[in-house]
Amino acid sequence: MALPLLLAVGTYGSADITDMQVGFDVIAMPSLADLPSIDAARRAAIKAVAYKGHKAFGGAEMDALPSLEIIANYGVGYDAIDVVAASARGVRVTNTLDVLNDDVADLAVGMLLSFNRNMVANAEWLARGDWTTKGDPPLARKFSGGRAGIMGLGRIGREIADRLAAFKMEIHYHSRSAKNTPEGWVWHATPQALAAHCDYLVVALVGGTETQGYVSRDVIAAMAPDAVIANISRGSTIDEQALLEALGTGRIRGAALDVFSREPQLDPRFMGLANVFLQPHQGSATIETRKAMAALQRANIHAHFAGTALATPVN
Predict the structure, then answer these.
(1) Is 234 among the residues known to form the active site?
(2) Which of 49, 161, 199, 289 has the least C-beta neighbours within 10 A?
(3) What is the longest distance spanned by two Cα atoms in the chain?
(4) What is the mean pLDDT of the segment spanning 16-33?
(5) CA torsion 10→15→19→24, rounded to 10°?
(6) Nearest CA-CA partner of 6 in 83, 295, 20, 15
(7) pLDDT, tens digit, for every residue of 225-273?
(8) Is 205 helix (H, G, I), strand (E, B) or coil?
(9) Is 29 strand, coil or helix?
(10) Which helix (H) or strand (E) segment is 173 a member of?
């Protein structure tokens, strides 16, 4: 009996492909743009897609795979996948919820701490020999004890808030409704109200059309001049042009960013700013978490073909 045909789309390593081959016949390719290169008969037999990418996976791509039953996304954010189109075609969609929460939350705190304490500049100061010739570097800024604002108190947002609470911070948050939180945490009904009441605004929203530009020009304008914004969600959640203007004019103190509206070719203006701490979209990029994400992705595919409950269904 022939094994189900699985299409692995993205930059999977050889070990990942080997693991996928347990129970499946696997076709690997770097991008959905390569779909036409697959023989039509073989493409028509593909039943599952292991998807690791940010390019749009819409109805047209699904129609090119007429036997498709499941798209297992590698990552918690699935905004690249048209879930409505998938549901209309009877295609299940899954993600890798929860396994990356700790790493993303750790990075959010690490970026803010590094930004405030001038860690990159101080390391360069030491490496250049300036400590010997010029003495101590310029003073940094205190991090503990500030007011943290979490834009989107979902699973990752809650992990970030818990970590910042350990830094003796006052926790404020915005979500569609107030949540069950520790005593003293403050809910704000609008994003502008949250922005006006925090020293550190951490964006932890889900991606997609509903949150496109959610941190708008008005939200950024509501921030205090000494405030810092951090984003570990999606670049699309912030009005990037408004953010660049605010950073360039010194309207806000700075930003710590792991995501951008264009990746990896981010707006070159970012590279000319001294008041930013930038990372190459690596919130979940640890050996342990990437292994866990791949294992959960495979587990969802195996569960589908075994007829058992999906671990992390989207639709």
Answers:
(1) yes
(2) 289
(3) 74
(4) 96
(5) 60
(6) 20
(7) 999 999 999 999 999 999 999 999 999 999 999 999 999 999 999 999 9
(8) coil
(9) strand
(10) strand 170-174
Q: What is the pLDDT of residues 73-96, one digit of tens each?
A: 999 999 999 999 999 999 999 999
What is the C-alpha to C-alpha distance for residues 28 and 11, in angstroms, rounded to an integer? Answer: 9
CA atoms of 185 and 182, how far apart (whole Å): 6
DSSP conformational letter for 2? P
Q: Same CATH topology for 5-99+287-306 and 101-278?
A: yes
pLDDT for 60 equals 96
Contact 54, 30 (CB under 8 A): no
Q: Which residue among 174, 197, 234, 304 is the active-site one? A: 234
Pairwise CA distance, residues 78 & 273, whole Å: 31
Class of 101-278 in CATH: alpha beta
Token pair 């408004």 is found at 242
Backbone angles phi, psi at 48, to 5 degrees: -140, 150
Task: Give the 3-state secondary structure of residue 52.
Answer: coil
Q: Using the Cα atoms of residue 169, residue 174, residue 180 and residue 186 in order, give the sign of their dihedral.
A: positive
- Annotated domain spans of the chain: 5-99+287-306, 101-278
Q: Which of 42, 128, 210, 263 is catalytic?
A: 263
Concerning whether 281 is annotated as a catalytic residue, the answer is: yes
**Hey, how many other C-beta atoms are within 10 angstroms of the C-beta on 142?**
9
Is 304 in contact with 92 (CB distance < 8 Å)? Answer: yes
Catalytic residue, chosen from 163, 217, 269, 281, is: 281
Verify whether residue 304 is a known catalytic residue. no
- How many residues belong to the chain? 315
The counts of H helices and E strands in the chain are: 12, 12
At residue 308, what are phi and psi to the nearest 5 degrees? Answer: -105, 170
The pTM assigned to this predicted structure is 0.92
Phi, psi of 73 (to 5 degrees): -85, 140
β-strand partners of 148: 171, 200
How big is the CA angle at 81 (ends 76 and 82), to the nearest 5 degrees? Answer: 135
Considering the chain, what percentage of its residues have pLDDT values greater than 90? 97
